[in-house]
Design brief:
3-stranded antiparallel sheet; 8-stranded parallel sheet; about 15% strand; globular; alpha/beta
Length: about 350
């Protein structure tokens, strides 16, 4: 593999690219896929970034100051905006705003703040439809709004479906105990969903944007994709999510299989703790994952900018919404992420 370059190095190559709604200080290289490798312009890259937590649980961090602080002080040039689709998060967080489906204006208000800030700070940003259930028409409405506002912006990446969970996919089917056959059928439904949304986005966007698509069972079943990949669009990657204390060799082996079949993989959510988001930090496993991703040139986004009392949240409740942040208000995982980004 050719030597991968960092995001910062791509900025010097970016003269003459298309503009965005808010003109960036320096235009970014367009992202595209060649084989299984992501490129910025004509250079292979491995992007490394940070995900904001659910917009309706931690909206206080969705602002230009927080993003600029993580860009300038932490070295992040890739962000992920996890826009909650429905009211899933209300069960554990009573009193928070509803997700996009029932509170569209608030979701877009939060989202546009961080997209505009990413553009102003020479960064890429993933627009993540953060859902576990399939909502085609609300998702279409959401991505139509974003693509219309940012039609020619190379900074914007579209993540069509955060973590498909088959047990709740469709009331007419029982996926509570999924079999291989039912999961293959579920992936076929997800493929049709993705192809429909890609058509919607690309009918508006002139940027030929990078598109990410999740796979069944919390982005664990990447091995289902090679037999039936999304058709009709060439600038697409498939997401895998791992939590290092839970997910070990088997998920890397599934990913290796997909890559060997020509499927490009993007790690759009991960952390060093257990899959619950809590528990202990397995640094040995995290380092194994990071080494594997580096060797394969796989872009990686860590979870999350939040202040929940759990391991994967990067801040304490005492942390300011906009920064700057002393190490006293950055939790252990956040300190590790700061070091990893530099």
């Amino acid at each position: 593999m050719r030597k991968l370059i960092t995001i910062a190095a791509t900025l010097a190559l970016a003269a003459g690219l298309s503009s965005c709604k808010n003109e960036p200080a320096q235009k970014m290289e367009s992202l595209h896929v060649e084989g299984t490798q992501l490129y910025a312009g004509d250079q292979p890259v491995r992007l490394k970034g940070i995900s904001f937590g659910w917009h309706n649980i931690w909206p206080r961090f969705w602002n230009a100051g927080a993003l600029a602080q993580m860009h300038n002080e932490w070295g992040a040039n890739l962000f992920r905006a996890a826009v909650g689709s429905d009211d899933h998060a209300l069960a554990d967080n009573p009193g928070i705003p509803s997700g996009y489906i029932n509170n569209k204006d608030f979701a877009l208000e939060c989202l546009y703040k961080v997209i505009d800030a990413a553009i102003e700070n020479d960064s890429y940003i993933i627009v993540d439809w953060h859902s576990h259930d399939l909502y085609l028409e609300p998702a279409r409405d959401f991505f139509t709004a974003v693509a219309t506002r940012y039609p020619d912006c190379p900074n914007v990446i579209y993540e069509l479906f955060n973590e498909p969970v088959s047990r709740e996919f469709n009331a007419s089917r029982d996926y509570s105990q999924p079999t291989d056959e039912s999961l293959e059928g579920y992936w076929n439904d997800l493929k049709e969903y993705a192809e429909s949304l890609i058509e919607t986005i690309t009918s508006i966007s002139t940027a030929h944007p990078l598109i990410l698509m999740g796979c069944p069972q919390w982005d664990q079943d990447i091995h289902l994709v090679p037999a039936n990949p999304v058709e009709g669009y060439d600038n697409i990657m498939y997401t895998v999510h791992f939590y290092a204390a839970t997910h070990k060799d088997y998920l890397r082996e599934r990913s290796d299989y997909a890559i060997s079949k020509g499927i490009p993989v993007f790690l759009s959510e991960c952390a060093g703790c257990e899959a619950t988001g809590d528990g202990f930090l397995d640094i040995e496993s995290w380092n194994t994952w990071d080494k594997w991703a580096e060797e394969n040139g796989i872009s990686t986004v860590v979870w999350s900018v939040s202040d929940k009392n759990e391991t994967c949240s990067m801040f304490t409740p005492e942390a300011s919404s906009e920064g700057p942040w002393s190490d006293e208000v950055i939790k252990e995982w956040g300190i590790i992420v700061k070091d990893w980004l530099k």
